[in-house]
Amino acid sequence: MERQGYPSSLEISVTSAGQEKLNKSQRVRHKSVQFEDLFSSEDSPRVIHINDPRRTNEKYEFTGNEIRTSKYTLITFLPKNLFIQFHRLAYLYFLAIAALNQLPPLAVFGRTVSLFPLLFVLFVTAIKDGYEDWRRHRSDRKENNREALVLQSGHFRRKKWKKIRVGEVVKIHGDEAIPCDMVLLGSSDPNGIAYIQTMNLDGESNLKTRYARQEIASMVQEGGSYSGQIRCERPNRNIYEFTANMEFNGQKITLGQSNIILRGCQLKNTDWIVGVVVYAGQETKAMLNSTVSPSKRSRLESYMNRETFWLSVFLSVMCAVVATGMGLWLKRHMHQLDTLPYYRRKYFTNGQANGKYYKYYGIAMEIFFSFLSSIIVFQIMIPISLYITMELVRLGQSYFMIEDMQMYDSSSDSRFQCRSFNINEDLGQIRYIFSDKTGTLTENKMEFRRASLYGKDYGSSTHAGAQGHRWKLKSEINVDPELMALLHKDLVGEERIAAHDFFLTLAACNTVVPITTRDSSASSANEVHEVEAIDYQGESPDEQALVNAASAYGYTLVERTTGHIVIDVNGERIRLDVLGLHEFDSMRKRMSVVIRFPNNAVKVLVKGADSSVLSILKNNQHRDSLADKIKSATENHLTSYSSQGLRTLVIAARNLTDAEFEEWQEMYEEASTSLMERSAKLRQAAALIECNLKLLGATGIEDKLQDGVPEAIESLRQAGIKVWVLTGDKQETAISIGLSCRLLTQNMHQVIINGTSELDCKRLLTEAKERYGIKSANNGNEFLKENFDYEFLDTSCDTRNSNVLIPENGSRTLRYAGDSRDMSEFCGEKRSDLDDTPLALIIDGNSLVYILEKDLETELFDLATSCRVVLCCRVAPLQKAGIVDLIKSRTNDMTLAIGDGANDVSMIQMADVGIGICGQEGRQAVMASDFAMGQFRFLKRLLLVHGHWNYQRIGYLVLYNFYKNAVFVLMLFWYILCTAFSTTSALTDWSSVFYSVIYTSVPTIVVGILDKDLSHKTLLHYPKLYGAGHRQESYNLHIFWITMLDTLWQSLVLFYVPLFTYRNSSVDIWSIGNLWTISVVVLVNVHLAMDIQRWVFITHVAVWGSIIITYMCMVILDSIPIFPNYWTIYHLAISRTYWLTILLITILALLPRFFCKVIQQTFWPSDIQIAREAEILRKLPNQGLKPDCDIS
């Protein structure tokens, strides 16, 4: 991620709210606009009376400091949990079924038995939710009962956190946690400095500095009185800004983000601090930001709902057939009802019902009741067990992904993390990857490499810097001997003065905090010298790199307070008064500091992006002046640095006259104390002095590529995945990194869009489309998405080729099976004569402002989807989300976003799959992501191996569950057709219930977790095999209907083979039902065994053990005298016919499937089948192990 200062407030406010869709205006709004909306007027701020909580809370009744993260209480658990669970429509369906079965006319199953499956699922889920919430309650209790020192009656006394109120003064000691959001009043440091760690808040491990205003130092002195009034903004989620004023002793003092310490932080390297509570409990910024990421839904699960709909239609048709048949049968036998069982007027029996009248409701109502009864009998056509099975399988898959040591990053000691368990299979269907650059493709460990100073380039030849005996840096930095020699000359001459100001700017214009420690080092003469080791803590790796470089060249920042800094210049300490600091923001793209030198001279030091600083330099009347030559040389150096992949900054300065300083100071103080539009007013104040600057030079910082990035990108591209890079760096830097990571190649045509207006952008897009013959998408988005869906679902077998295992060389566009029509007809399509030349689109953030805001999105979509590579430079966080939404909203392609920092959160949450990198920029991206890992290169294994496996497994799992339930229901359907449409059952109630829950569930789960069609080595060696997910080979509508046809045949065999076998025997209906039960269990398990690719011991136990357990359950059920099927299994098992019938059913039912598989794999094999065959025959290179030996 790219961040040179504080992150913009916009990304925090937007991402914390978890927005998934952004309208056009939101994509380009600046942070100040969003932030200033948080409070409506200056008349309604929050007023806090220091050390007077009663007066503070009597009017406003601010919330207490007790927090609650739990969902339930003992009273609300049952109703609230059930309400949440029944958001799943399938649960409502089964609840309705169970309710219908309680009615006497519809009681097909036992009333208790019909409730068992639903109650079991609800109970298990409730136990899980209850345990999770109990842990939250325990955590809340522990947090609320912690104690802190609170000022009470003039003394600091212990008080529980939950009883702390707004307005109270709190004292915190070193290494203690902060209980609430507090304005810092003072600290153990004489200058009022406090060091905090925000690891629990944003995940960043580096220390940050907070300051107490010098004007209120007397408040915390011995005997000082705590008084005053604070007016601050309303509670909001923005952790990077704070707007407030304090009134103390008649003074109006401005307070900002550097004066507040937030709940969740920890005090470090400071003995104690004192602060006043401004936000407590649920109103603290930490609690307001504790929202969960937006829930994402698997694409395959949404397709599964489509098939569930078709099964519901099929179920309704079957029920209608039964009901109609019942009506016709009753009509035909109307005059015989008195003599027919179940329909005669009176019961003739020896029981209590003898002589009672049977409740016959008439043909119309009997048809209606028959329809409802049929729904109850056929209910498992919609498999309730599938939801639990999928959750368990995903959990198992996540376990193996987490435990995969090849995705363990030793440098950050981080394992792979699964933060969302419901989209594992989406990893196998990714079409687009949107990647941040800094910290994602690169290491985000900045090293100072080059410097352009006074028109000269330094850094081409360096050696280890001799940093002297006084200061010892944490890491050794190479220095340029020529530049070092210049800096040791007397401060005479323009070049020497420019070099002096250059390094003063590097050391002073930042928010870095120096931390010094004493260290001892031994010299060659065995003498021990005491030196001071210095470490810099900063919020930006860029700033730390620049300050370290300045120290290596003799300009060491040794002290920082709110009012001054101290810089050691070659052994001589210089104290500089800090009169004002304009921090980096995304609009100005620069940072400036106003300082007063010991000789009372006032100067503004500026650093920032070249596009921002070069435009505000002083204009010279003479075109060939020295300043123009320096500027021209510097621009050439900047281009050179960028082409080498270095991150660049321009350094400039300016002396301020007394009049300019007074005008700026007046505006700056007014802006700093404003509660309304403070950010905008501070920008206006900065504009007064950030002009007519003198150019000092430029810097080049190296951010190295992570290991394995080029290889990973190449493999992903061969897999048919398009990789787009969205970066905040300048264009040249992005292009250079693109070349080094093999994203760009030399033979690509680079289409560059750098527009400065709407008309300019439209012209550039139109010209590019005309030049490369790109057709427009003439149809609407919905039509486009439907056609994409059709393309993916109905890809015919003839698009599969058998040469996927042949490596493809050269620079021509990579083609993989089934992708020859990718986006060709419905979005941008290149002319056939230009197909061999790949295109690369390079576009900047300024152009995206006009394109995403105006009606140019379609033009950009056409052009971008026709290009092999897209590089977006200088983009803001919401523009990243806008680019993801551009693809996501116009196609059915799966998108993945990967980043490492706070400004990647909106992009991560917008994409179908979001991945956070555990990098140098904290853990905000990780906390907002679905998955997290330590290095970009792991993405290759995650998608090509685990993504492929997960998609294949889940796809088969869903189809198999539909099959095994449908074959059982159809078997019952044929039986009902032969029993006068009476909805009676030959199976016991418990057998019907146990079929999905016990008899057939375990093998499905085991295969869904452990089965592998190919080894990880094969999948990594041939990335194009990933295309099976793009073509939806494992799960699509075509396969679903073929499976249903196969199910129809198997159900007919199941029903009629026993019927014909025992047609002339005296066997009773419960014995036949017993035979059908064991036959269907054997059949579906052997069916599963035919499709298993990888047999291990657990698989054998699950599949064959399932059949054994079924027999055991049936023996137990048949041994209970009160059941109608009592002792039937014992009579059947001694018959040879029984066992031969089961064998005959299995063979006849699976024979068509077996022949179809043989023919298909012989004459029309898929890429996976070819690779599988080669793997088994050990024909693949580097295949040291059999596939069966491969472990998760």
Automatic annotation (TrEMBL):
**Subcellular location(s) per record:** Membrane
Active site at 436 (4-aspartylphosphate intermediate)
Q: Which UniProt keywords apply?
A: ATP-binding, Magnesium, Membrane, Metal-binding, Nucleotide-binding, Translocase, Transmembrane, Transmembrane helix
Gene Ontology CC annotations of this record? plasma membrane
Q: How does it sit in the membrane?
A: Multi-pass membrane protein
**BP GO annotations:** phospholipid translocation
- The primary location reported for this protein is membrane
Instruction: List, for all copies, the residue spans of the domain called P-type ATPase C-terminal.
Output: 926-1166
Q: Which CDD domains match?
A: P-type_ATPase_APLT_Dnf-like (cd02073)
Annotated positions binding ATP: 436-438, 543, 584, 607, 647, 727-729, 874, 880, 903-904
Residue ranges spanning the membrane: these are 89-107, 113-131, 309-330, 367-388, 966-987, 993-1014, 1035-1057, 1069-1088, 1095-1117, 1137-1156
Q: Which PROSITE patterns match?
A: ATPASE_E1_E2 (PS00154)
P-type ATPase N-terminal domain ranges (all copies): 48-113
Enzyme class, first EC level, given as a word: translocase
Assigned EC number: 7.6.2.1
**Signal sequence: where?**
none
- Provide the reaction this enzyme catalyses: ATP + H2O + phospholipidSide 1 = ADP + phosphate + phospholipidSide 2
Q: Which cofactor does it need?
A: Mg(2+)
Protein family (similarity comment): Belongs to the cation transport ATPase (P-type) (TC 3.A.3) family. Type IV subfamily.
Indicate what this protein is called per its UniProt record: Phospholipid-transporting ATPase
Q: To which species is this protein native?
A: Phoenix dactylifera
